[in-house]
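We now fix the convention by which a protein and its fold are recorded. The integers have meaning only within a learned vocabulary of local backbone shapes. The record below shows the convention in full.
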Amino acid sequence: MEAGYMLRDFLNLLRITGGGWIYAILILLRCPVDVLFRWTQASFLQRAFNALGQTDRVGLMDACLFFVIATLCSFLYNGTIWLIFAPFCVRMERKLRIKLYNKISTFSYEKVESLPHSEWLTRLNTDVQMPFSQPIHFPHAACSIVNISVSAIILWRLNPSVFGWVILFVVPHIFISQLLIARAMLELNKKSLEATAKNTGELTALITCADIAMLYDGQDYLMKRFEQSSLNLMKTKMKIIRRNSLSAAILPLFGLSGYLVLLIVSSSWIANGHFTFGDLSAAFQYRGGVLVGSLMLINSLISIQASMAGIRRLNKTMLKETEEQLYG
């Protein structure tokens, strides 16, 4: 239900700014990049180690040549997509800021004064960056879903038993990350946005009310309010850093354990000739695709949920009716 509301709010914003179809096409073009690069690495390792095991020099050279050509093509394709996508997002953000400013300009004086000036500044500066300029957002969520799905399918076709062992370690990792990291990070990101908006408001008051503060000897009062809001913002940021550190500590625990168990289990398969070291190397790569894609999806959803407050404020502002619209 919540995901449906998030998608609806984002689509409303795309309808307001325009360019939704271009945005969707660029995301679709970006989705195969991670999967293709993962498949290139896995195929190279599988072919290279199998060639080494058979002392096949020609096969090894073919594998190396394949890796160089495939990596170069992937690099050029990915670079081309991002060279188009990044300027497009900048243009979308600029268009949204202009439309938002023009919309606010049509409001009556009473409506503008109904909110603090810092609130309008937050919408014009911070909120307009939420839909298109976040480091991790909708494009990364789409890419991670494709990466997880394709890596899991290839891993299953490679060896169902290996797939089972991978899932056995990946699922608890995701569950613990969601329980200890994701939920807390969502709340902390919301508090960080609120603290940033309040800090911006205190700074605005400190600058715009400087003359009045000097007249009534209130500089210390305004400065203390600004210092307190800055301290609260810093404390919130420190909590986010601690949660990120905890996430970084959990990753090696499950990641290394999964690798060790997979090595132990697959050793008997390799000894019996049912599995090769090249197949195991490829399985490690696809396991990485499932694990990294899952973590990226969690981080993307955290970022999206944290930014939805700003996106909803933008929708609320853009869809407000002006007095001219109400009374003609």
Notes: Residues 210 and 259 are 61 Å apart (CA to CA). The radius of gyration is 26 Å.
